[in-house]
Write a sequence for this structure.
């Protein structure tokens, strides 16, 4: 679908889909990346509460990704 639409960026969280899209030369971003971009642009003061919810739901986020994102955004 991303190729057919000539999408500039795909939102994907599942690793197999991300790998496939990347191998096809498509740019991808996940939910955590969207939250980080929102914080960087001043739309969100904190992203930890949203990340906590995602981690609790096991929504394509594990503790390692959570820890990396929190460290990167300084929360």
């Amino acid at each position: 679908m991303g190729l057919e639409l000539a999408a500039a960026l795909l939102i994907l969280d599942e690793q197999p889909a991300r790998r496939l899209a990347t191998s096809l030369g498509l740019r991808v971003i996940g939910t955590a990346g969207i939250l980080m971009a929102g914080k960087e642009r001043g739309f969100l003061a904190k992203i930890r509460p949203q990340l906590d919810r995602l981690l609790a739901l096991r929504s394509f986020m594990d503790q390692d990704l959570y820890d990396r994102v929190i460290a990167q955004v300084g929360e």
Summary: The longest helix spans residues 63-73. The chain has a mean pLDDT of 87.
